[in-house]
């Protein structure tokens, strides 16, 4: 995320899966100086998580029900999305940094 004059814009988002010890990048998207928009970011994150779940289900030869995936992805992203622009920015950053700094 960057700051240009008094406007906030987003450069890139990354989405990870986590097990108890490490993280794995499952998707990233670069933006071209796009103004920060929570809905845009959440929708892109939902798209990446949905694509990941769909691909994992196909790899395991499981039936892919798009409506079920969309419903679950909405819950997952809704429960885990945290904006670093929130009032709890420092707390959010302190919680995220150790996880992001661990090696896979």
Structure write-up:
With 104 residues, the chain is α+β, with helices and mostly antiparallel strands. It has one domain (2-82). The chain contains three helices and three strands; from the N terminus they run βββααα. It has helices spanning 38-59, 66-80, 89-101, and strands at residues 2-4, 7-18, 23-35. A three-stranded antiparallel sheet has the order 1-2-3. Strand 1 and strand 2 (7-18) form a beta hairpin. Helix 1 crosses helix 2. It is globular, with a radius of gyration of 15 Å. It starts with a strand and ends with a helix. 7% of the residues are buried. The model has no long low-confidence stretch (mean pLDDT 81).
What keyword list fits this structure?
104 residues, alpha+beta, three-stranded antiparallel β-sheet, 3 helices, globular
Structural class: alpha+beta
How many H/I helical runs? 3
User: Largest beta sheet: what is the strand line-up?
Assistant: 1-2-3
What distance lies between the first and last C-alpha atoms, to the nearest angstrom? Answer: 23 Å
Order of helices and strands: EEEHHH
Beta content? 25-35%
Mean pLDDT over all positions? 81
User: Based on CA inertia axes, which overall geometry fits?
Assistant: globular
Q: Percent helix among the residues?
A: 40-55%
Can you summarize the main beta sheet?
3 strands, antiparallel
Number of individual domains: 1
């Amino acid at each position: 995320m960057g700051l240009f004059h008094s406007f906030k814009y987003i450069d890139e988002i990354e989405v990870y899966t986590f097990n108890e010890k490490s993280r794995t990048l499952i998707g990233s998207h670069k933006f071209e100086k796009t103004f920060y928009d929570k809905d845009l970011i959440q929708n892109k994150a939902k798209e990446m998580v949905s694509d990941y779940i769909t691909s994992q289900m196909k790899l395991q030869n499981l039936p892919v029900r798009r409506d079920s995936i969309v419903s679950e992805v909405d819950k997952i992203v809704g429960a885990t999305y945290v904006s670093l622009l929130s009032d709890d920015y420092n707390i959010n950053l302190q919680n995220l940094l150790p996880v992001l700094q661990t090696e896979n």
